[in-house]
Amino acid sequence: MAGEGGVGKTSIIHRYLFEDSTTPVMTVGSEFAYQEMELNNQKVGLSIWDFGGEERFRELMPIFCLGAHGAIVVFDLSRFSTFLQLEFWMDVIRGSTNGIPIVLVGAKADLEGGPSDEEIRRFCEINGIRAYMPVSARTGENVTELFEFLAKKMLQATDEGRLKPAYSLR
């Protein structure tokens, strides 16, 4: 998960893993979580990397992106400035990965004040993003659906030979 600091990345992960809407503290550097789910009658393990969005942590991100099979790029629907920074995050992900599925997420869908639907659509079109999802960690809107959707896209890319399978040593 990538995006500016304070957009809600950690809150979305926390809501997904623990079904809890309390606001966690801001991520320093990066954090890691693992979650298993069942998709298409097979067990899928998600290794979820949460990157701190502050400027001082950005130089580490390309290293952590190596080997990624999917990305969630997050902006805050109530802070237009975070939408304007998406190009940076897309450049980092694209420069460190090879054609992985990317989902654009508008976090804090329960709030207002961000870009218009047309601006979001245009950004997705320009950047070749085929999936956009508004999400709210507070209400739980689309949180589980987000991770299931990305997992399905990653499995599909693996089945089509666009990604190499990642195997756990567990």
Strand order of the largest sheet: 3-4-5
Give me the strand/helix succession. HEEHEHHEHEH
Helix-residue proportion: 25-40%
Overall pLDDT: 84
Q: What is the total number of structural domains?
A: 1
Offer a quick outline of the entry.
By secondary structure, the chain is an alpha/beta fold.
Produce the secondary structure layout.
Blueprint: H1 9-18, E1 30-39, E2 42-51, H2 61-65, E3 71-76, H3 80-84, H4 86-96, E4 102-107, H5 117-127, E5 131-134, H6 143-159
Parallel strand pairs: 3-4, 4-5
Antiparallel strand pairs: 1-2
Protein described:
This protein has 170 residues and is an alpha/beta fold. It has a single domain, classed as Rossmann fold. It has helices at 9-18, 61-65, 80-84, 86-96, 117-127, 143-159, and strands at 30-39, 42-51, 71-76, 102-107, 131-134. The strands form two sheets. It has a three-stranded parallel beta sheet with strand order 3-4-5. A two-stranded antiparallel ribbon has the order 1-2. The relative contact order is 0.20.
Keywords:
170 residues, alpha/beta, Rossmann fold, 35% helix, 21% strand
